[in-house]
Design a protein that fits this description.
CATH architecture of the largest domain: 2-Layer Sandwich
Radius of gyration: 16 Å
Number of strands: 6
Strand content: 25-35%
Distance between the termini: 20 Å
Shape: globular
Number of helices: 4
Oligomer: single chain
Order of helices and strands: HEEHEEHEEH
CATH superfamily of the largest domain: THUMP domain-like
Number of domains: 2
Helix content: 25-40%
Strand order of the largest sheet: 3-4-2-5
CATH class of the largest domain: Alpha Beta
Largest sheet: 4 strands, antiparallel
Length: about 150
């Protein structure tokens, strides 16, 4: 069984942590099934920039750095300029400057790596465990956005 919860902040008050609110709400749904948790996190749209998340398989025989280097190289080959990158849990998160066809980029990247999300405002975080377990690995509580 699954449980779904959401929050939307109206106005410009940045005092609210969207991530913290989502963790508390999903924690209340935990009785529905503790096997996994996922978050859809929305921030203000970033014009000309895309946020991408990739799954880096911890069970793979390949070295994580090799997998990340292959993703970086593919992005550059497709005309993207890497602006920001981070590693959290089993995810590699990268923000790129890109003015090409997003659908083509998405298609090409899906053949190069396991894509979790691509967007100008949306990021997906999902993993096995409770909301608090996923937060411990991905720091969802630090997310400040418009809704989730």
């Amino acid at each position: 069984m699954c449980g779904i919860a959401g929050v939307m902040y109206r106005g410009s008050d940045k005092a609210f942590s969207t991530g913290e609110a989502l963790i508390r709400m999903l924690d209340g749904c935990q009785h529905r099934g503790p096997d996994s948790t996922g978050f859809a996190l929305y921030a203000p749209e970033t014009s000309g920039r895309l946020k991408l998340r990739f799954f880096i398989d911890p069970e793979s025989d390949a070295d994580d750095d090799v997998a990340i280097d292959a993703i970086r190289q593919r992005l550059v080959d497709l005309g993207a300029a890497i602006e920001e990158e981070a590693r959290a849990g089993d995810n590699y998160r990268v923000t790129i400057l890109y003015d090409g066809d997003v659908q083509k980029l998405s298609y090409e990247m899906e053949h190069a790596a396991k894509v979790i999300s691509i967007g100008t405002s949306l990021e997906i975080v999902k993993d096995v465990g409770s909301a608090h377990d996923v937060d411990d690995r991905y720091h969802v509580n630090q997310f400040h956005g418009t809704h989730g």
